Amino acid sequence: MLKRQTVCLSLFIMCFGVALSAQVTPSEAAARYTNAHQPELTREFQEFLSIPNVAADPASLERNAYFLLNALRSRGVDSRLLRVAGAPPVVFGQILTQGAEHTIVFYAHYDGQPVTPSEWTIPPFDATVRKVDGEDRIFARSAGDDKAAIFAQLTALDALKASAIALRANIRFVWEGEEEAGSPHLEQILQTNRDLVHGDVWLVCDGPVDQSGKQTVVFGARGDTHLEITVYGPHHGLHSGHYGNWAPNPAMMLAQLLAGMKDQNGRVLIPHFYDGIAPLSAAEKQALAHAPVNDKMLMDAFWLGHTEGGGAHLLQLINEPSLNINGLSSAQTGPHAANVIPPTAIADIDLRLVVGIDWKVQQQRVIDYVRSRGYFVVDHDPSKQELTAHARVAKIICDPASYNAVRTPMELPMAKEVIAAVSSARGRVVLLPTMGGSVPLGAMERAAQTRTITVPIANYDDNQHAANENLRLQNLWDGIETMAALMDMR
């Protein structure tokens, strides 16, 4: 009798354990997995981050691609490299689920911004963990932008498998290698492999969560384009004492030209700059009204005594086009400064776009403005004849690797499913019509015949694109939970 009771008790415990396992949600499975494996996961992430990934080093981009290809294959994922001439490969993987009605595509990029090692407190590819305000952060180029998302997706797969949670949709991965260079070949690669990359939705896992720390779902991104403006003075540097007040100084000319482009509140003064903006929908306006306003906190964090925008807060201004000076160059400063009138001055102009404004049109508006200020505009190095025939000459080079803004309606059924999935993992989420950064969503939507929704995981203060880029490790663990919940969608 005792033996029979023991057997019955064993069966009860076994069945009870199976029942408990079946009740584990994907995000809970991910939390259990990361809690049990944090030291080794951190080491694996460091190994990934230690592979250099800047565009100037194509051999290292290849190393990254093969590292990810092997990571997918070791997990049994059907994977390959998608290539066109002259571009780093796109790493592609897919998991086909029997009976699945939908296909979900996860996008991220493995390339990173250039680095100037002397500006870093630790070498940019040493992937070092340090405490910041009592929390662990990992410092390395692309820690936040965007290798964290790729690693979170791989780890989410492991966590679901460890808890025997079967996928219900087809899952595809598209990991790009030239996003930081403007994705000039992405659309061509996707068009060439249209059948492979199509999905009901592309989940773009790039960028930071809201500054409040709450998980964010974003339904669009600004477009982006650049211009380089060069203005000219004497053919070679001239002594500022002998020729000052006589020979035009291009540094001063460029400063005056740029200063006329914006007023003191940051409003762009270039004619028609704001023409054509597509208005936000009622749902998008409501989402903005419910989003956290973090301006005061950010001003303190960034040591700002004022902001632009005439009193509008950050999330409102992100939904307007912007004009930013990325850099200025003329002669020398500091110990290398000389008493000289320089021959040229150069500015790199960054234009962020919103839905309704075409990048070519916005470039032309800037060119027309420069002409209106009395400049003869060329797109090549001017000749002596051109320089002497005109009082002011400006060379303007327009970046062709540009793209327009895209926004997915929040009311779509797939959008609601994504919101529900992320909410199941992270609780109440912040919904935003547009994020400030730019991602080539248009290329994705055209080539893959799909819609895009952005689900970022990095911390807002990750020094994205700058020295000492970092990721708060808790954002990685939270991100793995988010990715697991998204992979569980039907």
Essential attributes:
globular, Alpha-Beta Plaits, Aminopeptidase, 20 strands, six-stranded mixed sheet, 2 domains, disordered N terminus, seven-stranded mixed sheet, 490 residues, 16 helices, alpha/beta
Low-confidence stretches: 1-21
| Strand fraction | 15-25%
CATH level 4 superfamily of the largest domain? Zn peptidases
Rg from Cα: 26 Å
Protein topology:
Elements: H1 2-22, H2 26-49, H3 58-74, E1 78-82, E2 90-95, E3 103-109, E4 128-132, E5 135-139, H4 147-162, E6 170-176, H5 186-192, H6 194-197, E7 201-204, E8 216-218, E9 220-232, E10 238-239, H7 240-243, H8 250-259, H9 282-290, H10 295-302, H11 314-317, E11 322-329, E12 340-341, E13 344-353, H12 359-372, E14 376-378, H13 384-389, E15 393-398, E16 406-407, H14 413-426, E17 430-432, E18 435-438, H15 441-448, E19 452-454, E20 470-472, H16 473-487
Parallel strand pairs: 3-6, 3-7, 7-19, 8-17, 9-18, 14-15
Antiparallel strand pairs: 1-2, 2-6, 4-5, 5-20, 9-13, 9-15, 9-16, 10-12, 11-13
Helix pairs in contact: 2-4, 2-16, 4-16, 5-15, 14-16
Description:
This protein is of the alpha/beta class. It has two domains: 24-219 and 408-487, Aminopeptidase (3-Layer(aba) Sandwich); 223-281 and 320-398, Alpha-Beta Plaits, CATH 3.30.70. The protein has helices spanning 2-22, 26-49, 58-74, 147-162, 186-192, 194-197, 240-243, 250-259, 282-290, 295-302, 314-317, 359-372, 384-389, 413-426, 441-448, 473-487, and strands at 78-82, 90-95, 103-109, 128-132, 135-139, 170-176, 201-204, 216-218, 220-232, 238-239, 322-329, 340-341, 344-353, 376-378, 393-398, 406-407, 430-432, 435-438, 452-454, 470-472. The strands form five sheets. Strands 9, 11, 13, 14, 15, 16 and 18 form a seven-stranded mixed beta sheet that branches. It has a six-stranded mixed beta sheet with strand order 1-2-6-3-7-19, with helices on both faces. A hairpin with a 7-residue loop joins strand 1 and strand 2. The chain is globular. It starts with a helix and ends with a helix. The model is unreliable at 1-21 (pLDDT under 50).
